[in-house]
Amino acid sequence: MEELSLHILDLAQNSIAAGADQVKLTVEEQPSNDTLTITVLDNGCGMSAAQAEQAADPFFTTRHTRSIGLGLPLFKMAAELTGGSFSLHSAKGKGTQIRGVFRLSSIDRMPLGDLNGTLLLLIQCNPSTDFIYTRICGNRNFELDTRRIRRILGEVPINRPEITVFLRKYLKEGDLELKGGVYLDESGRACSNQRQGEK
Amino acid sequence: MSLEELAQIRDKVRSKMNIREADPNNIRVLVGMATCGIAAGARPVLNTLVEEIQKRSLQNITVTQTGCIGICQYEPIVEVLEPGKEKVTYVNMTPEKAVRVVSDHLVNGNVVDAFTIGAAE
Ligand SMILES: Nc1ncnc2c1ncn2[C@@H]1O[C@H](COP(=O)(O)OP(=O)(O)O)[C@@H](O)[C@H]1O
Ligand SMILES: [Mg+2]
Predict the structure, then answer these.
(1) What are the pLDDT digits (tens) for B104-121?
(2) Model confidence, pTM
(3) Domain count of chain A?
(4) Is B104 exposed, middle or buried (0-12, 13-18, 19+ CB in 10 A)?
(5) The complex's ipTM?
(6) Residue of chain A with shortest Cα separation from B45
(7) Does residue A53 belong to any structural domain of this protein?
(8) Domains and CATH numbers, chain B
(9) I need a labelling partner for A32 at 20 to 30 A (CA). Which of A96, A141, B94, B116 fits?
(10) Which pLDDT score, from 0 to 100, does residue B120 have?
């Protein structure tokens, strides 16, 4: 995988496979600390202490279609390669939190890539799961909470194409606000301290 | 784009919805989305399908994901399920191919044979 947003997609898929109906995704860039922190927190089935111990080992998986799981080991490796860290906290029956801290300036850090595409896909494909997405850059933040969207929509399904198109624009405008009027570059790498357009 | 605009969109969708729910010809489009599929580029394929379907205002089609279909070497995979017809499996999909599948297959009912698993084998 060549984009962090694909790792996020993969982690969220784990949460959904674990039966979570609520997944919190947080992506925080703090240039002053040189960190990019990705956190996925779910209320799925969780793991026992023994399972959690092994989860980042490539030869551990509870799936049956393939004998090895790669999602967690690859994410852990990607974080550690930048001089960052990985952590996993899980409680059986309660949920799981996965976190990767990346060194923002490391040449080994993959670009974030298409975060919005990841989020839209998750919402589109999992209409009964709630996603609480928080994007933080320095002292600015943006949130998309599907519980709020769903309250407005009532009986209209959140994965109707018209709604997806709305969410796409909404997210894009969120990016703009986050950057203080500066769009991200294609790779998603450009999270800067830019303060143009700030009042 | 504000959440007030969302309420307006909701009302528009609501007025169209009854027609759709009553339609017995609902087509389901499934995109394989396990780790292997994601790595092979399933995300842009799925997002392109949704966009094209919206652009053409196709009302009787739902797009969702499935897990690993077990033939990872052919990912990204798209399956089209139409009531009363045999399942069509498209393999090695790209956003460009997805546009073709929408315009030829979903709009006009012509399966794009060249992209199917039969052609790949
Ligand atoms: N969020 C989660 N909740 C519960 N179990 C999880 C979660 N994430 C991972 N796991 C467990 O860890 C295993 C390894 O995950 P992963 O490395 O992504 O491989 P895979 O998803 O292909 O099995 C999973 O099979 C599952 O048992
Ligand atoms: Mg996984």
Answers:
(1) 999 999 999 999 998 887
(2) 0.81
(3) 1
(4) middle
(5) 0.73
(6) A121
(7) yes
(8) 3-120 (3.40.30.10)
(9) A96
(10) 80
